Amino acid sequence: MFKRPSSRSRSNHESLELPLVPILDTMVTLIGFLLFTTSFLGIVAIESPLPQSSPEEVKEQIKEKPLQLTLTFKEKEVLLWSPFNKIPSRSIPHSAQGEPNIKAIHDALLDVKKQFPKESSVVFMPNKDATYDNLVAIMDSVRTLEPSDPPIYLKNETTGVDEALKYLFPKVIFGNLLGDS
Amino acid sequence: MSSSRGIRARRGRKSINKSFELQLTSMMDALVIIVVFLLKSYNTSSNSFTTAPGLKLPISGSPDSPSDSLQVIVTPEFLTIDNERVLDFIQTAGNAGSNEGGYSFKPSDIDEGGFRIIPLYDALIKSREKTEILLAKSSARVDGKPITFEGILAVQADKKIKYDTLKKIMYTAGAAGYKVFKFLAMKRET
Fold first, then answer.
1. How many CB atoms lie within 10 A of CB B108?
2. B185 near A43, Cβ under 8 Å?
3. What does the alpha-carbon distance between residue A34 and residue A32 come to, in Å, rounded to a whole number?
4. Which residues of B touch A136 (CB under 8 A)?
5. Nearest CA in chain A to B178
6. ipTM confidence
7. Of A45, A130, A178, the CB nearest to B163
8. Contact (CB<8Å) B170/A21
9. How many CB pairs under 8 A join A and B?
10. CA angle at A152 for the pair A146 and A157, rounded to the nearest 5°
């Protein structure tokens, strides 16, 4: 026997519904918060200290003869040298387009870092026509080690464990602010 | 008569009771995708750096985020300190309207053999004095002494600017007591 239509509509088959409205409220709040607080414009900074030296430091340096790794930018080349002749001078010619050869500069600095793993600073002597774009590109290649670079290890003096270095020469100092090129 | 009225009333009630339901599931899908995208590209910064129209920053792979500091913006047309225009470069017929700019200074704006930019120096000194007063009045102390002036200057410059102009800005900042420069660049997408 069939049930009466009225009793069929009032059957116990209650559909289970997720309470989506409060979840939706949370989502909308979360999106609003993320949109408000996120910064889509990624800005990074490259730090460079003003060159300074105190008389005591100078005395110490004269005793030890520092590397004082220097990159001099010329019209058609970049010169890698040390004022105390700790490394042989190397000239890295610009590319055919007249731009500094970033890869060759990075490779040359990698060789120097292998010899002097404790050294962390490099002196920049750009010529007056060097563009900011090129300076930033060279600073990047001078400061950071690429994942494809061979690892360079340095013994951690506190733990005594060899640790792979993360940076090449992170401290970039502009050495010709007073006009000598 | 009464029975026909009852049937009509019931029909009317049926049409009112038909509940209208929003398709929330598909909306939820869209919102979840937006939330995941925002969380993936979430990048917060404690400071808000402003930029000038027409300024094209170089691209860098540096991992360092800029800290809160005084900001100098150098565009092909002018120079600002904390959004206050302090200097206009000379615009010649050759560079007017172009993005390259000449970055030429008026002779009255520079001294010390062409190294120091006078309006920039004055603005930096003013800003330094203001910061030092605020630090002295602040309750924050390090070993019982007020926090010293760090002298950090964030430089935001167009990528085509020549080192000659940058050098003058750095020299001027050094003369005004700013010892650390932070060159700002656009983050390279990896």
1. 8
2. yes
3. 6
4. 58-60, 159, 183, 185
5. A50
6. 0.75
7. A130
8. no
9. 160
10. 130
Nearest to B184 among A28, A45, A179 (CB): A45
Chain-centroid distance, C-alpha A3:
77
d(CA B135, CA A50): 22
Pick among A37, A47, A73 to test the B interface (most B CBs inside 10 A): A47
pLDDT per residue rounded down to tens, chain B (190 residues): 455 555 555 555 555 556 777 778 888 899 999 999 888 877 665 566 777 777 889 999 888 888 888 999 998 888 999 888 998 888 766 655 555 556 788 888 888 888 899 999 999 999 999 999 998 888 877 777 888 888 999 999 998 899 989 999 999 999 999 999 999 999 887 6
In the numeric block, which tokens belong to residue A75? Answer: 């019209």
CB contact under 8 A, A50 and B158: no
Cα separation, A95 vs B77, whole angstroms: 31
Q: What are phi and psi of A122, to 5 degrees?
A: -140, 140
Q: Does the predicted model carry a pTM greater than 0.90?
A: no
Give one word for A139, left, alpha or beta, with left for phi > 0 and alpha for psi -120 to 50: alpha
The amino acid at residue A87 is I
